[in-house]
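Input record, target 12 of the design panel.
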């Protein structure tokens, strides 16, 4: 990695680009065996974020939290993707810097159940929603979906700073959704279906690294049983 970076910078300087000199000796790779922990919100943090978030961002954050969508997927949503009668959400496209693209993969283009609370929120949001020609749920003044980095920088970070929560991106909502799924007792197969991972190994890797409350509670129950076994018998007088 460091060798590649050095080659890139050297080539750029040879081509006449103005590159800042970087001392590669000061760069350090992550220690072997250390795992990157993706940012995720706790249930308490989610409640605090949603309590002060204004529309349309509150609805956007709720969709991300309750159905685990990727940032591009929620930005690409249209009203025609939401089946209010059957409480279903269709993933058909993504929005990347305002440009519409097909779903990430064949597995990504799917149908997800909409929780009743989210369905009610979507109905209420539609009442105050400002129509646009394409029918997108979230748009900028030019009628195109906003860029995810703008949503993060100008809206999410403002909320996180006010609440004293470390800054992170929209993907933290998706990771929070994963934790909530596991806490509810969902199997890896259900998690894979909900998150739309084409490779089950991706889902298993996530499940392996997320220590949810239900997991911890199960381990504590095992410990309590062993603790009871290890106690000396009560002496009867």
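The sequence produced for target 12 reads:
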């Amino acid at each position: 990695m460091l060798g590649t970076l050095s080659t890139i910078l050297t080539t750029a300087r040879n081509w006449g680009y103005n590159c800042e000199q970087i001392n590669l000796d000061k760069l350090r790779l992550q220690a072997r065996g250390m795992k990157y922990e993706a940012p995720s919100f706790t249930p308490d943090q989610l409640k605090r974020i949603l309590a002060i978030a204004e529309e349309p961002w509150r609805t956007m954050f709720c969709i991300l939290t309750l159905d685990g969508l990727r940032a591009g997927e929620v930005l690409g949503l249209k009203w025609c993707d939401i089946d209010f009668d059957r409480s279903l959400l269709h993933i058909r496209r993504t929005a990347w810097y305002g440009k519409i693209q097909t779903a990430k993969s064949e597995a990504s283009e799917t149908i997800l159940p909409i929780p009743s609370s989210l369905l009610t929120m979507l109905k209420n949001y539609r009442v105050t929603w400002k129509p646009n020609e394409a029918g997108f749920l979230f748009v900028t003044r030019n009628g195109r979906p906003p860029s995810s980095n703008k949503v993060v920088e100008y809206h999410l970070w403002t909320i996180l700073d006010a609440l004293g929560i470390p800054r992170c991106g929209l993907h933290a909502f998706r990771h929070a959704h994963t934790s909530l799924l596991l806490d509810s007792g969902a199997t890896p197969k259900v998690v894979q279906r909900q998150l739309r991972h084409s490779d089950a190994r991706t889902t298993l890797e996530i499940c392996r690294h997320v220590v949810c409350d239900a997991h911890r509670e199960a381990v504590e129950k095992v410990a309590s049983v062993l603790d009871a076994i290890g106690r000396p018998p009560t002496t009867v007088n």
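The chain has one domain: 43-209.
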